[in-house]
Amino acid sequence: MTIEHFDVLIVGAGISGIGAGYHLQANCPSKTYVILEGRDCLGGTWDLFRYPGIRSDSDMYTLGYSFRPWTEAKSIADGPAILNYLRETAKDYGIDRKIRFRHFVKRASWSTENAQWTVEVEQGPEKELTRFTCNFLFMCSGYYNYAEGYTPDFPGTERFKGRIVHPQKWTDDIDYAGKRVIVIGSGATAVTLVPEMAKTAAHVTMLQRSPTYVATVPAEDKLANAMRRYLPAKLAYGLTRWKKVLLSMYFYNLSRRKPEGVKQFLLKQVREQLGPDYDVAKHFTPKYNPWDQRLCAVPNGDLFDAIKSNRASVVTDRIETFTEKGIKLESGTELEADLIVTATGLNLQVLSDLQISVDGAPVDMSKTLNYKGMMYSDVPNLASAFGYTNASWTLKCDLTCEYVCRLINHMDRTGLRQCTPRRNDPTLGEEPFLDFSSGYVQRTIDKFPKQGSKAPWKLYQNYALDIVSLKFGRVEDGAMEFSNPRPASAERKRLAS
């Protein structure tokens, strides 16, 4: 078996992996890299999800890359537009030529003696086993299981005569025109599906066990579009990006300081949309505070428009059982449907369930401590891209990619081959990796690494603080151990070249 070697091996060709490819080319131009993608096309989330209305829940001025301006008019973009943006980015920078499709990474073993990872991969439909080696492993595969979404074990599903589908498994043959549809859920997927399906369905019911905070946002940023007409694209994009960042940071911090005030602001917005007679207390007033879970954004209030026009409705109740005609609720009401969509969430995964070992010892990721939101205690030369929970995914990923490049370049300068986060502070406490009450988080949080009680082990979910730490902070910070000098012969050869 021929084993290919690369300086950096990136796992995943979605928004994070493409960004990682760019930053390596820009900041570590002498390094070789490859991107291994388990599916047969790039795009990750934005290619996988095909359900009606699929769109971003972050504005594209921050979900877009720092190095490539978003130039479309819409701030909240649909899935096909985002996928096109990713494809063009990969093509324009030659990143697409570095991608190996149908390469599913299964295991990674670190050897301190060789200062490299050996990565085992299942290749192609036959799942032929192949191996790669690399000096640095960069996991950009997201945080959820692409193979299957989360669906609760609802009683009676076998009795239902219509079709049941999870949005993650949406296919082109699903016909809902003129039909009665129930969408189970109240998160970002549900509030996206309902107004889009309501355009042609007979009626769409959003069935929720409990409400979520929903905020109306403009589909387009008029100031951004105006600036783009009069300013250079990169300048206009940069100004808009920072405006969005600062506004979102202000709103998040205000939610933490004055949760009741923010709650009333959001509920007032809903009342203004739906009128004084609508039961906002029952259907749109959560029991938790704003940003204890992620807020749902609806561009131009499309969800509320669908409700006001009676093309859609919201029912807040619990499911007793599925029936032949639809769903019977605990209140005794039966909702009839031709199609039921279970927008009930994701199954989270840690590093795509990659099996990791260090010098022959298996690594239990739940026992590790997360370093700067990207690396793991006692695991050398491995980083992962994980975005913010309270802001755009890409903001943190851009910073992570730049920091990985800083680490690689520092090791080159010092002649060291290994960087390992070490938990050497006896006063350091442990906290959950994510401070979110959402069900999809709580179901699997015990499998995730922990975060520490203070820097550099604590996740502050704050872009400004991360810029200071990751862009300008020292890489030799007392927690990151650099070791494993390059052999003298290899060092002489490097200097000669």
UniProtKB/TrEMBL annotation:
Amino-acid biosynthesis keyword on record: no
TM regions (residue ranges): none
UniProt keyword terms in alphabetical order: FAD, Flavoprotein, Monooxygenase, NADP, Oxidoreductase
Cofactor(s) needed: FAD
Alphabetized InterPro entries for the sequence: FAD-binding_MO, FAD/NAD-bd_sf, Flavin_mOase-like
GO MF annotation list: flavin adenine dinucleotide binding; N,N-dimethylaniline monooxygenase activity; NADP binding
Keyword check for Cell membrane: no
Domain of life according to the entry: Bacteria
Pfam families to which the protein is assigned, alphabetical: FMO-like, NAD_binding_8
UniProt similarity note: Belongs to the FAD-binding monooxygenase family.
Name this polypeptide is given: NAD(P)-binding protein
Species, as recorded: Parvibaculum sedimenti
